[in-house]
Amino acid sequence: MQNPKNFIIKYNRITAPLLAVAFSTLALFAAIYVYEAFLFLIPVIVFFSFHFTKLYRLRTRILGGLVIFIIVAMISAGISTSVIYTTDPVVTDHYTNLSVQTQVTPYAGNYSSYNFTMKVMDRVQLNPDHVTLDINTTGFQKNVSAAEMSHYTNASGDQVFYYVYTNPPAGIYSYNFTFQNQTGATLYTGFGTGSGPDTLSSVSTFKELFIVTVINDVIIFEIILVAGIFIARSFSRSARNRIRPPQRPKQPDIVDQNNNQ
User: Fold this and answer.
1) How many angstroms separate the CA atoms of 238 and 230, rounded?
2) Sheet holding 91-94, edge to edge
């Protein structure tokens, strides 16, 4: 029976990409659901997948790494599209004297209108004249003034501000609510308040996210991989030069010795 490691090395043109894609997908899930910095493990995983399977040809590693990164970008876009179309997130932020919940409904899909809502809890009443909303997508921003916002107090005593945006341009949006207290000092600027809505179809969302991933991540990953490959090659050559045995001095030819006698 063939040793598994020998099999992996023998067929490294197949096993190296498979290992790289499999472990990169695990790092991708960790980046999405645990901590975003895990994303930068992907070029490291690809590098060591090539190294473990002894796939050393420079051109193969550079081009193969690029192909693997593109495949991982497609997987990332697919996961993100699925998350967008199966969630309707409510974001909660806590401050010294109040908590705020923000939400946009519907969150994904092509609809005629979208409701942006901010609920101020802990029975804190804000000045409606100082509540604004910024809605952003690539190449477009809508600023909603306090006069355009609506508000009411619900049965629980929470103050609710909302704005209905009709027929927005197609895109993947994010938004920020900003409000101030009675004296005009800003209490909350909505950093990371919420994403959405996504007004594109699922196919268009996948394409958009894939392009963004290629531009923002794949190029950086390829640069990291190429840099790692050349650094490793440099260390390898230095190590070979250090362990190479010293060459013996050339012995004079016997004929030359006899002629000199």
Assistant:
1) 12
2) 91-94, 99-105, 113-120, 159-166, 150-153
DSSP string over the chain: ---HHHHHHHTHHHHHHHHHHHHHHHHHHHHHHT-GGGGGHHHHHHHHHHHHTT---HHHHHHHHHHHHHHHHHHHHHHHHHHHHH----EEEE-SS-EEEEEEES-BS--SEEEEEEEE-TT----GGGEEEEEEETTEEEEE-GGG-EEEE-TTS-EEEEEEEESPPSSEEEEEEEEE-TTS-EEE--TT-EEEEE-S-HHHHHHHHHHHHIIIIIHHHHHHHHHHHHHHHHHHHHHHHHHSPPPPPPPPPHHHHHHH-
Question: What predicted TM-score, i.e. pTM, was given to this entire model?
Answer: 0.69
Cβ atoms of 177 and 118 within 8 Å: the answer is yes
pLDDT in tens, 116-158: 999 888 777 777 888 889 999 888 899 999 899 999 999 888 8
Measured distance CA(11)–CA(121) in Å, rounded = 61
**91-200 sits in which CATH class?**
mainly beta
